[in-house]
Write a structure and sequence with these properties.
The protein has ten helices and no strands. The chain has 228 residues and is mainly alpha-helical.
């Protein structure tokens, strides 16, 4: 039989995550590119730029999450969350080459590519969080932000198959992020709850981090749509 007070505490963390995720839900107009991809109207060169930028974003985010895990050594729940995120980025990185090949991106083109500042602002801020944010605050901000990213990936995966003729292997990168991750969600809840119970969660600061993450996410997509 579950203790009622335990249920109440769990709901507190879940409700907080739900509330901040809703607050950070992006305005549909903030991402002009994903609707173009969804309609099959985005140029294939834009898809190539997307994979070229992700080739830098994914390993950078993985290292940032690993650093946050190290900084969370005294907070095992947060440590577990960031370790899981880093493991996920490693899986995503292994799936990128198939998407790159489908976009006509080879090693030579990748080596010659100059990244776009507007796209790399997001991983730069994740790295800032890794160095400066309290782990508990970063958990809340990152977990709330991931909801929008997962939705974008689901839309892109469907469009790549429908409009661009990409096969399952080429779409696997987006499929991975689009899949529900209940274990990761529960890990985030435990980390947030532990921080709430210990009084080490600064909700205002976490909201600030989350708003900046969401803004940089929107900047990423706007930059890809109009790189010049």
């Amino acid at each position: 039989m579950t203790d009622a007070s335990e249920d109440a505490m769990t709901r507190t963390a879940r409700d907080l995550l739900k509330t901040i995720t809703a607050e950070l839900a992006p305005d549909p107009r903030s991402n002009p590119l994903v609707p173009l991809i969804a309609a099959g109207r985005a140029d294939r060169e834009v898809l190539a730029a997307l994979v070229l930028e992700q080739m830098r974003v994914i390993p950078a985010d993985r290292r940032a999450f690993l650093h946050l895990a190290v900084r969370s050594s005294a907070e095992p729940e947060a440590d577990a969350y960031f370790t899981a995120l880093a493991d996920g980025e490693a899986i995503a990185q292994r799936r990128l080459p198939a998407f790159a090949a489908a976009c006509g991106v080879d090693e030579t083109r990748a080596a010659a590519y100059t990244p776009l500042p507007g796209c790399q602002a997001y991983p730069a801020y994740v790295a800032w969080l890794a160095l400066n944010a309290a782990p508990a605050d970063a958990v809340l901000a990152v977990a709330a932000n991931f909801s929008a990213w997962g939705g974008y990936c689901a839309t892109i995966a469907g469009a790549l198959r429908t409009h661009y003729g990409f096969d399952d292997e080429a779409c696997a990168f987006f499929d991975f992020f689009a899949e529900p991750a209940p274990d990761l969600d529960r890990t985030a809840e435990r980390a947030v709850q532990a921080a709430l119970d210990a009084g080490r969660l600064d909700e205002s600061r976490a909201r600030d981090h989350g708003h900046l993450l969401q803004s940089y996410e929107a900047l990423f997509w706007r930059t890809l749509e109009r790189p010049a």
